[in-house]
Amino acid sequence: MSIRRHNHHRHSSAEMVMDPVCGLQISKYGATTHREVGGTLYHFCPARCASAFNVDPVRYTASTG
Prior knowledge:
The chain is α+β, with helices and mostly antiparallel strands. Helix content is 22%, strand content 25%. Strand 1 and strand 2 form a beta hairpin. The radius of gyration is 14 Å and the shape is globular. The termini are far apart.
């Protein structure tokens, strides 16, 4: 039995999202953690960023404009 591994490849810009905590651009399909706030889905790279988001989601979702 063979094990298929995910080959890292370039993702289109439509597949890329920004982790709202650290600002890292990540693939929304490769994000390990997700949270939905106010109908918007946020993606996070490590669990540490998701934990920081959980403490104060308004800090990371409030509009700056």
